[in-house]
Design a protein that fits this description.
By secondary structure, the protein is mainly α. It has 5 helices and 4 strands. Strand 3 (about 125) and strand 4 form a beta hairpin.
Length: about 140
């Protein structure tokens, strides 16, 4: 029975990911469902007592400053307790030759057009989220 359930789940998720291959949001929803990851609903910190002044603050900016000071002190305390090492951090890195230069392969106009066509028309894409219909219009002007 367990084997049948596992086969059924495997078939379901293979079909799900194949169907939603181009939909990044659906893909991540499937991954989160598969690993049983649920979003945690956090509660905001309403009030916090300052360890220095012993005063309770309800101001969000003061609360963030209290937390920042607290965690920066912890880091400093932990750093002073760590023993000094005589071994360089380079010794822990894998040894490989890193080239000092790189080159891009030429891109053909057909590759650019194929990339445009793979983006759904109702989505925004790129650094400034330019609507795809504007990019497609520019592509049509280029082809004239």
């Amino acid at each position: 029975m367990t084997g049948l359930i596992r086969l059924s789940k495997k078939a379901y998720y293979q079909e799900y990911f194949t169907t939603n291959l181009a939909k990044q949001k659906k893909t991540w929803e499937g991954i989160n469902k598969l690993i049983n990851r649920k979003r945690k609903i956090g509660r905001p910190i309403a009030a916090l007592k300052c360890p220095v002044s012993e005063r309770v603050s309800r101001n969000p900016s003061e609360i963030s400053n209290i937390l920042n000071k607290h965690f920066s002190r912890i880091v400093h305390k932990l750093a002073t307790k760590m023993p000094m090492s005589t071994i360089s951090f380079y010794n822990y890195l894998p040894s490989f030759q890193c080239p000092k230069s790189f080159a891009f392969q030429p891109v053909s106009p057909s590759e650019i057009e194929a990339e445009f066509m793979s983006i759904p028309a109702n989505k925004a894409h790129g650094l400034y989220s330019c609507p795809i219909y504007i990019l497609a219009f520019c592509l049509s002007l280029y082809q004239i």
